[in-house]
């Protein structure tokens, strides 16, 4: 007989993703009773555990729908009215169970800028302490890195010849150092990628904080959808949920409710519960509890992919190649490309728009051919069969801002996600400049003739023609943030303590609280936010 699920705890955490697993694990480790709610299914499966399965997980529609909610943006008016995919993890561990495992803290200046806006306690040194607690870095502990934490971090294993060449070429052309640790004292340079994976396993937040930490007072309830936060007399008392069989129940929180459902889910739940722009809520027949700018400040990273035919890389993006890899990995775990992320190198460099010492462009490199022209369609056809290298020219400090709004008061309805990509022309300027910088890198002597040709978008496209082509090729890096902005002014939803303004007993802890996006992949910062939330709660 199945164990009956609990309906009351000290803390109820909504969402088992990057932040939710961290805050739930730490609170339970401190002895508090915690119920961690997840709408998705179990993450204890080969598809999720194996780092290299990120490719088929996102490229094969039949597989993708089992781990992804399948959201799309509204038509993006500045990029040809394209509807962009918005992948969100539909599994325990949330998006940390389906991402590329590129482990990037961001630039220290990012956090000092948060603190300068009034977010006391979120400066670079303060968040560094949280990062050190969460890390188990293979290089060991120092002033900037942690060892012994729940999330294992390793450098790219067995990089290919083309990866070595790319590092040398980037250093030659852009004059940047080959940086041993971009998560340490300085971010600028070109580096071998660090991944939250080790010994052939993905170290998602759920792997580190729930399965491995396994605190006795934590109860994980999966396949449970939260439909509303109950707010009584200005205080959050619990949540309403629907189980997989359609049954509804109330789960009460003796101390606090913590929303960690991501930039989509947390903002949507707040609005469904009466917290948001007052008129927008009234338009959907929702009683207003607190009039706050929920859903504003939405922004995201974007990249433009350039693919080159290279003979110094050996990967092929076809089903037969993956099938052979899976067979070998089952027989000898941890010995094939599936034991690691698909990315092998990452760089942080400056363009003409850079301000001060902060790199404003990220280069993701993967030794594969990339889909062309974009990822908008559920079924993709154009992946070049040759060995290749793809460089993702990444806009990491977008100036464009969008919104997230309810499409309906029905909690199962996908909200209206409008990133407003490339509304600011300088965002497109950076992608264009970065694309030309990448072409110069790939033409460097370090490749020794191994770079044969530019496959996509094609060397014939330059200037205004390339600029126009980028509008059809630029793609989200799936790093949406900001919809529950942290701050001390009227534009904020939560304060520096992550408490929702105007509601007692309710906090938000995930990437939605970022006032401005960090410089690089956002998974590590999201886990850090969970660590910070736990410290704030326990300290209080």
Number of strands: 25
The chain-level structural class is: alpha/beta
Rg from alpha-carbon coordinates = 22 Å
Number of helices: 14
Outline type:
globular
Low-confidence stretches: none
Biggest sheet statistics:
7 strands, mixed
Oligomer: single chain
Helix share, percent: 25-40%
Terminus-to-terminus distance: 40 Å
Beta-strand proportion: 15-25%
Mean pLDDT: 95
How would you portray this structure in words?
The protein is an alpha/beta fold and 540 residues long. The protein is built from 14 helices and 25 strands. It has helices spanning 18-29, 46-49, 54-59, 61-67, 108-116, 124-134, 161-174, 205-212, 262-272, 278-283, 319-331, 425-442, 463-473, 523-539, and strands at residues 8-14, 34-37, 71-72, 85-86, 135-137, 151-155, 189-192, 194-195, 197-198, 201-202, 218-221, 224-232, 235-243, 248-259, 275-276, 290-291, 302-310, 345-349, 361-366, 388-395, 403-405, 416-418, 451-456, 475-476, 506-508. Strand 15 (275-276), helix 10 (278-283) and strand 16 (290-291) form a beta-alpha-beta unit. Helix 1 (18-29) packs parallel to helix 14 and helix 7 packs across helix 12 (425-442). It is globular and about 70 Å long. The mean pLDDT is 95.
């Amino acid at each position: 007989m199945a164990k009956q699920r609990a309906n009351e705890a000290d803390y109820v955490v909504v969402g088992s993703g990057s932040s939710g697993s961290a805050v739930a694990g730490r609170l339970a480790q401190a002895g508090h009773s915690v119920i961690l709610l997840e709408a998705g299914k179990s993450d204890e499966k080969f598809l999720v555990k194996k780092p290299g399965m990120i490719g088929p997980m996102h490229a094969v529609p039949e597989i993708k729908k089992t781990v992804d909610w399948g959201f799309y943006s509204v038509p993006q008016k500045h990029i040809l009215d394209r509807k962009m995919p918005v992948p969100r993890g539909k599994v325990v561990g949330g998006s940390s169970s389906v991402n590329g495992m590129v482990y990037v803290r961001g630039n220290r200046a990012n956090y000092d800028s948060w603190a300068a806006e009034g977010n006391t306690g979120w400066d670079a040194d303060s968040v560094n302490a949280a990062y050190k607690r969460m890390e188990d870095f293979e290089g060991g502990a120092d002033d900037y890195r942690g060892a012994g934490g729940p999330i294992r971090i390793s450098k790219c294993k067995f990089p290919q010849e083309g990866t070595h060449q790319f590092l040398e070429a980037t250093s030659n052309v852009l004059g940047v150092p080959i940086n041993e640790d971009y998560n340490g004292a300085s971010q600028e340079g070109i580096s071998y990628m660090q991944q939250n994976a080790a010994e052939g396993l993905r170290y998602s937040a759920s792997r580190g904080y729930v399965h491995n930490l396994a605190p006795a007072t934590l109860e994980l309830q999966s396949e449970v959808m939260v439909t509303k936060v109950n707010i009584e007399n200005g205080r959050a008392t619990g949540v309403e949920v629907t189980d997989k069989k359609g049954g509804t129940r109330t789960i009460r929180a003796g101390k606090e409710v913590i929303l960690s459902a991501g930039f989509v889910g947390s903002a949507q739940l707040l609005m469904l519960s009466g917290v948001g722009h007052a008129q927008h809520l009234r338009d959907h027949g929702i009683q207003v509890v607190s009039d706050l700018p929920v859903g504003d400040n939405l922004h995201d990273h974007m990249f433009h992919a350039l693919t080159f035919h290279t003979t110094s890389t050996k990967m092929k993006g076809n089903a037969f190649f993956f099938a052979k890899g899976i067979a070998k990995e089952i027989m000898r775990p941890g010995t094939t490309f599936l034991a690691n992320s698909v990315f092998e190198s990452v760089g942080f460099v400056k363009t003409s728009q850079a301000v001060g010492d902060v790199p404003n462009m990220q280069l993701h490199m993967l030794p594969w051919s990339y889909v062309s022209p974009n990822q908008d369609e559920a079924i993709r056809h154009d992946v070049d069969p040759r060995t290749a290298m793809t460089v993702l020219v990444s806009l990491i400090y977008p100036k464009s801002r969008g919104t997230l709004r309810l499409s309906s008061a029905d909690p199962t309805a996908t909200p209206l996600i409008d990133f407003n990509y490339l509304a600011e022309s300088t965002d497109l300027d950076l992608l264009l400049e970065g694309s030309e910088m990448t072409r110069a890198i790939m033409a460097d002597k370090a490749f020794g003739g191994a770079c044969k040709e530019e496959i996509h978008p094609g060397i014939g496209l330059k200037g205004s023609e390339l600029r126009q082509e980028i509008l059809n090729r630029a793609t989200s890096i799936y790093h949406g943030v900001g919809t529950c902005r942290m701050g001390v002014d009227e534009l904020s939803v939560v304060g520096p303590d992550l408490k929702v303004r105007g509601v007692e007993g309710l906090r938000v802890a995930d990437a939605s609280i970022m006032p401005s996006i960090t410089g690089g992949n956002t998974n590590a910062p999201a886990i850090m936010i969970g660590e910070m939330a736990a410290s704030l709660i326990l300290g209080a």
